[in-house]
Amino acid sequence: AQSVTQLGSHVSVSEGALVLLRCNYSSSVPPYLFWYVQYPNQGLQLLLKYTSAATLVKGINGFEAEFKKSETSFHLTKPSAHMSDAAEYFCAVSDRLSGGGADGLTFGKGTHLIIQP
Amino acid sequence: DAGITQSPRYKITETGRQVTLMCHQTWSHSYMFWYRQDLGHGLRLIYYSAAADITDKGEVPDGYVVSRSKTENFPLTLESATRSQTSVYFCASSESGAANTGELFFGEGSRLTVL
Fold first, then answer.
1. Residue B63 — very low, low, confident or very high, per pLDDT cuts 50/70/90?
2. Is there a smaller number of Cβ atoms within 10 Å at the N or the C end of chain B?
């Protein structure tokens, strides 16, 4: 089974500063990787995904992530944080589900992004 | 409206009671999933379904039962609720497995408290 490690359960940045959320995965072959965002009292929504095309992936709301195979990483960045970016962010990797009949997603534990005014 | 809806959004119950959380999607997606979200654990898969009448266990299935008699519905039942099942439950659907499009569409969650 795949696993995902998100470094830092909480990350705090100032408004206008760079956002960097870290994600490392374990996989013997290049996986499909995803970042989801969860705003308070809402479900998760897809920010961006890597599916073996370009290694630099652009998503919604100015976020992007770079797939680095040598580092088994898929870190999420945004050049300038906005107050509306405050949310929980989840990195996820595609994975064969336990029954063997389908692929699903295995999620990291999440990183809470705090934006300081 | 199109989308994925969960009900109830909030539920308080007592230990030992049966609880059913409903999930309905209007996209005719083949795959449906139930996750639970707990602090420090992120999202963990409880059960999933690849199509009507096909269900399978995820990472944490104990104490839960699912069914999928229709493509659009995927109810989750706690047959005898325990305090450890206090959590936020998310239903999700996808058109195909993660190896293809990968995008899961989530409901807004059902917050369950077991006293």
1. very high
2. N
